[in-house]
Amino acid sequence: MTSAEGDPGSGLRTAELSGELRRMALHLETAAVLESRAQRTADPLQGTVLRRRAEQRRQEAARLRERLAACGLALPPRGRRTPGVSPA
What we know:
Elements: H1 14-40, H2 44-70
């Protein structure tokens, strides 16, 4: 297998996987910024909108994490890890 190949069963190449990792990180960072802005705003309506947008980013990051976890490149969310097994 060359570096341009990914997991043969996943249908994803290494470049695509690294792009997915970057997208996941970007969604999580954006969610954190939106949440921070929501906490600072005095306008309750704007706070609600910002929190909703932050949640949408977290959900998209979770979908990407699931896809990457299926390829063995990301840990599943905490609730789905095997009990009693700590990550290395």
